[in-house]
Amino acid sequence: MAEAIDAARSAARMTAAVAGPAHPRRILYELNLGAMLTYQGRDLVRARAYLRSAQLGIGQRIALTREFDETARRDLAYYRPAYTNEVRAAWYLTEVVQENSTGR
Predict the structure, then answer these.
(1) In the structure, what pLDDT confidence band is assigned to residue 97 with cuts at 50, 70 and 90?
(2) pLDDT digit string, tens, across residues 7-59
(3) DSSP character for 68?
(4) How far apart are CA 41 and CA 14, in angstroms?
(5) From the CA atom positions of the chain, what is the Rg in Å?
(6) 16 in helix, strand or coil?
(7) What is the phi/psi pair of residue 90, to 5°?
(8) Cβ(1)–Cβ(36) under 8 Å?
(9) What CA–CA distance (Å, rounded) separates 95 from 81?
(10) Is the Cβ–Cβ distance between 32 and 15 less than 8 Å?
(11) What are the C-alpha distances in Å from 94 to residues 5, 90, 91?
(12) Rounded to whole angstroms, how far apart are CA atoms 40 and 33?
């Protein structure tokens, strides 16, 4: 799994450098990175950062559309995991902080 995470990080960096933050592949790579880290319960702070970065790219991508048409709706549905996983990571982080503060 560590190799997959490293490969996705590298791919996201290269795609962002060449194609920009709103490129669908960069969004997908960051989405996958955030999801992998979230589901592993590893580095949740970084997972949220990847997911938020993906969300910014999604916002920029949606902003390019002239109106909220079928294409924009499909894009939002396709990128839904960026939002649900960010909430999941935040929830896990809250539980970790709570456990650490109560000594459980």
Answers:
(1) low
(2) 888 888 888 888 888 888 888 888 888 888 888 887 888 888 888 888 888 88
(3) S
(4) 26
(5) 15
(6) helix
(7) -65, -40
(8) yes
(9) 21
(10) no
(11) 24, 6, 5
(12) 11
